[in-house]
Design a protein that fits this description.
With 498 residues, the protein is an all-alpha fold. It has one domain. The chain contains 23 helices and no strands. It is globular, with a radius of gyration of 22 Å.
Length: 498
């Protein structure tokens, strides 16, 4: 079959689902026969097909990105309002910018780039770990457009020199597993706490408990019948229905009207009285944005690593052709970062986890779901009102809990297979708790690659560049960037260098 696959096209190798014993066998076969064209036109029917399973990651990704975009824009609005005396931005601004992000980037980078031109480049989504830093970014005097340009340039350089895939290859399973366990565990607890906080804020604490309890049972049932890829839509809808059934809809308000947002870049960046009210960035803005851009790009590799690992854990053998290409994904994310912000957006981008994780679980490749997702984002951005539902806590928090953080936790546990892996994973988790996940990844990668923890035999096979120069350089860059932006100030009282 391997020789046959090299000489025959996807269309020639494709078989109808009726010829397979199970639906899973059919989906496995589809992944094994795909031969995506890199930066060339890939067509439905010729290079891939649409399946009804593609709806699941598309819906999950849409729900996740609405929640993430809204959180990012509200953080920018709050931070810039504090940082600049003449700036007053609120909820209406945040929703309008989120709709801009869902229109143009969805068309250019979901439908065209990842859907038609390079099906191995994962979608460019949201950089979740950077959301808590946006307030600090604004207060430091950074400019969203300056940050986007720097981030995009650094990302393109890393992609050009294949730095992303190199870092992924230098990260052992133990380190990667520990990183995923920590991200999954802390993220899950965060979402549970936010659901309970929401329920208490409307004096209905019992509703939060019921929403969580029912969804725990539902998620366990979906896992038992091998349908975890349905988790985000099924559990999000369940959370919505239960909350409304118990009368907790008092804070669900529909305020977003149908129509198109302002798509003129001059409106957003052309003056200090319209759009972002900041005007175009100057040299000082670029200097203030520099450490945050370095930090964001440094965070990309562990983020991308987690998403590719999810494919490897859920896809069958002989599917290397459809695995996410880390460097191509960095290229797409970098260009999307510059273009999306230039037209008026404010997102800080990264590999799209709320799409990739459900897609991997559903055994679907990137392109078909990407096109469906991009189309859904455009429709919802025009309709407006679905955004109000998607950001309601019983929907948004449950979607993130079952669609991102619990699968991350499970994937991390699967990667820790022996004592050597558990040692590396344990140090990574401990370091992440002391510092943060990015610094923990860089530190444990350095220790692991030098045989100080983990598999000593693996360390003997690595060159000095792979053992010392690259991991050590990454660690130094991360430390300096975090010191520069004051990430250790709240925990340890170390003030920002800038």
């Amino acid at each position: 079959m391997s020789d046959q696959k090299q000489t025959k096209s996807y269309r020639e190798l494709h078989k109808p689902a009726s010829e397979f014993e199970t639906r899973s066998d059919y989906l496995d076969h589809e992944l094994q026969i795909m031969q995506p064209r890199r930066w060339k036109l890939n067509l439905p029917g010729r290079d891939f097909n649409f399946e009804w399973e593609d709806l699941v990651p598309a819906i999950a990704g849409t729900i996740g990105i609405i929640a993430m975009y809204s959180a990012v824009m509200m953080s920018w609005a709050d931070g810039l309002t504090q940082a600049w005396p003449h700036v007053t931005l609120g909820k209406e601004f945040a929703i309008e910018v989120a709709r801009v992000e869902m229109l143009i980037p969805a068309l250019l980078f979901c439908v065209i780039a990842s859907g038609l031109l390079n099906p191995r480049a994962n979608l460019a989504g949201n950089h979740g770990p950077m959301i808590p830093l946006i307030g600090a970014i604004a207060l430091a005097g950074a400019h969203p457009l300056a940050l986007a340009i720097l981030l995009g340039v650094f990302g393109l350089l890393l992609s050009y020199f294949k730095g992303g895939s190199k870092l992924v290859n230098l990260t052992s399973e133990g380190v990667a597993g520990g990183l995923l366990v920590f991200l999954g565990f802390t993220g899950a607890f965060s979402q549970i706490g936010l659901i309970q906080s929401w329920a208490k804020s409307i004096d209905m604490g019992h509703v939060g408990l019921i929403v969580l309890a029912v969804n725990v049972v539902l998620y366990a049932f979906l896992a038992k019948i091998n349908k975890r890829w349905l988790a985000i839509p099924a559990c999000a809808v369940t959370g919505l229905v239960i909350a409304l059934a118990f009368g907790a809809g008092s804070d669900l308000v529909f305020t977003t009207e149908m129509g198109l947002p302002n798509l003129n870049p001059v409106y957003w960046w052309g003056s200090t009285t319209e759009g972002w009210m900041l005007g175009l960035p100057n040299l000082e803005h670029f200097i203030a944005s520099l450490p945050f851009a370095i930090l964001a790009v440094a965070m990309w590799s562990p983020d991308f690593l987690g998403h590719r690992i999810f494919q490897e854990l859920n896809y069958p053998r002989k599917t290397e052709n459809v695995l996410m290409d880390v460097d191509d994904t960095m290229t797409t994310c970098s260009i999307r970062q510059i273009v999306g912000t230039a037209v008026g957006g404010g997102n800080i981008t990264s590999s799209w986890g709320t799409y990739m994780i459900p897609a991997a679980i559903a055994k679907r490749p990137i392109p078909a779901g990407s096109i469906v997702l991009g189309t859904l984002c455009i429709i919802i951005a025009i309709l407006g009102f679905p955004m109000d539902v998607a950001v309601w806590p019983p929907v948004m928090r449950v979607a993130l809990l079952v669609g991102v953080f619990l699968p991350l936790l499970e994937a991390g546990m699967q990667m820790i297979k022996n004592t050597k892996d558990s040692q590396s994973a344990g140090i990574c988790i401990f370091s992440a708790a002391v510092f943060n996940p990015v610094l923990a990844w860089a530190l444990t990668m350095l220790l692991d690659n030098n045989g100080l923890i983990g598999d000593k035999e693996r360390a003997k096979k690595l060159s000095k560049i792979d053992k010392i120069l690259i991991p050590g350089g990454v660690l130094i860059i991360c430390v300096l960037a975090m010191l520069a932006v004051g990430m250790f100030e709240a925990q340890y009282g170390i003030p920002a260098l800038l």
